[in-house]
Amino acid sequence: MSQEQPRRPSGQPQQQAAGVEQGAVRYSDVFPAVSGGLAEKPVAPQDAATMQSAESLMLGQTLRGGPAAAMQSAATANERMGVVGHDQATDATAVQGVTVSETRVPGGRLVTEFVAGQAVGQYLARDDASATAGGAGVGARGEARGGGGAAGLVDNTKVTIGEALEATALAAGDEPVERSDAAAIQAAEARATGLDVNVPGGLAAQAQSAAAANAWAARDQDKTTLGDVLANATAKLVGDKPVESADALRVAGAENRNKGDGTARPGGVAASLAAAARLNRDEAVWEQ
C-alpha cells in the first residue's frame, strides 16, 4: 500500500494558529537593526513585491543584493515552508507601507529604504556611475546638479561632514535625539572643525542639551528630533571638510560606545558618514 505524505489544508499557512513556524525567516534575520513587533514577523511575499516596486520607481531598477532582493529571498523561503501565503502581506507593512527616499549630495544621491517606518538600507549612487548604467538604470530619475551636468565639478563632488549630517536630518529626522546621537554629532563636529572643545551654541552643544531634555520628556511629541538639530548643519558648522574613512570610524565609535546595544542607528549620523566616506573613496555601490 502506498504511503502518502500528510497534506496541509489548502490556503492555510502551516501552524498559523500556533504562531510563526520555528525556522521562519523573520525581519530581524534579514535586517538586524529592525526592532519592535516588526522584528518577529516573517517576511511576506507582498512585502517584498512592494519594496521591489518602490525601488524600481525611485531607481529605475531593483538593486542586486539590496533590501528588495533580500526580502524576496526570505519571502520565497517562508512561502515554501507554508508560513505565509503567496498573496499575504505583513500587517505592519500593510498599514505603514514601505518607502524609498533620496537626498541629493554632491556628485550623487543618498538613498534610504524603509519598511514600516524603520530604515533597512542606505546606499550612495554617483552621478557618473548612474550615467553609464544605460537605459532605465539607476540614474533615470537623477537630475544634474546646478543644471550644468557634471562638467566642472571637481573638488565639489566630495561630500562634506556637514552635508552628511544634513542627510541624517532627512533619513532619520523624526527620531528623538539620544545620548548616542549627541556623542556622534560631537565627534563629527570635532572632525569637521578640528577643535577639541564644543563650539558654544554649536551642533554638539545643541545635541547634548536635546538628549538630556529628551531623557526627561514624558511624551515623544515633546522631544527634540535629529531633524531639529541637524537641519542646515553645514551653515551651523564653523568649519567643514570632506568626509574621510578616519572621520567615519571616529564617529561610529562614539555612537556605538554610547548606545546600549552597541549598534549604530539605521540612517543615523554614523551611517551617513560611513556612506559619505564610501562615496568619497569612489567605491561603486551600485551593481552595473
UniProtKB/TrEMBL annotation:
Source species, domain of life: Eukaryota
Region feature Disordered, mapped onto this chain: 1-23
InterPro entries, per the entry: LEA_SMP (IPR042971), LEA_SMP_dom (IPR007011)
Keyword vocabulary terms for this entry: Repeat
Domain SMP: start-end pairs: 25-80, 159-217, 224-282
Family statement: Belongs to the LEA type SMP family.
Protein name: SMP domain-containing protein
Organism of provenance: Urochloa decumbens
